[in-house]
Amino acid sequence: MTQPPNGHPHPLTEAAQGYLLALRVMTEGGATTMVSAVARQMGVSTQAASEMIGRLSTDGLVATGPDRDLTLTDAGRAAAETIFRRHSLLEWLLIKVIGLGWAESDEEAGRLQGSISPRVEAAIADLLGHPPTCPHGNPIDARAARDRPKGIRLSEVRPDTEVTIFRITEMAEEDRELLDYLEAQDLVPGVHATVVDVSVGRDSLTIDGPRGRGSLGLRPASLIRVLPGRADPGLFHHVPGHP
After folding, report:
1. Total structural domains in the chain?
2. pTM of this prediction?
């Protein structure tokens, strides 16, 4: 299990790692969140979330503000970034080398991410060719985040516009049905597609992709980032020896 970077003697459980990953997304850019929102994100009761947040606070990984708003401490963010990097490397390994699907690889990576040593992590990174992102296009660390374009929301693209799928954001990764749909439609980072229609009234977007025409609700579409036209292929990682 992953050891907190502040040297606390208790290792992080799989559940604690999941909370840190959720808080990493929910507090991105200096935002704060509440226990009730974390509970909804994790699919647990408010009491269960409160107990876990209490343990993470004791470990020095989560801070609670005067209005009971939650943020990650510096140690908590460092731990979350380490977990995310390991999770991402394992997803690449499970998808490209072992052949699992997106959603299944996410679950398996969650089970394995706390069990690998820094030496094994480095070996996996070498094997994979040091990907700058997770398989869904999210930057694997702060350096990659600085170096990569931000992209625009798919929901904001005007009709009759060609785009390149750039990034399935971390919030979208939490929706297994959405991941399954995007994978089935081959709407993955690096793929070209055309937005055919956007309807606010029907709360939907129609898109032509590699597998034909499909539709998405505007909210899930807002969780997908794209680049206009045909983006530089060098932005998208390819695992050596695996298509």
Report:
1. 2
2. 0.87
Whole-angstrom Cα distance, residue 6 to residue 75? 6
**Positive or negative torsion for Cα 69, 175, 87, 109:** positive
Query: What is the helix (H) or strand (E) element at residue 228, kind and residue range?
Result: strand 224-228
C-alpha angle 63-64-68 in degrees, rounded to nearest 5: 160
- What the block records as the tokens of 221 is 């579409």
d(CA 164, CA 194): 9
* CATH number assigned to the domain comprising residue 100: 1.10.10.10
How does pLDDT run across 47-62, given as a tens digit for each residue? Answer: 999 999 999 999 999 9
- Tokens 């929901």 correspond to 155
Last residue of a domain, one of 148, 182, 208: 148
Residue 227 CB neighbours (<10 A): 18
State how far the alpha carbon of 86 is from the alpha carbons of 46, 149, 180, in Å. Answer: 28, 23, 22
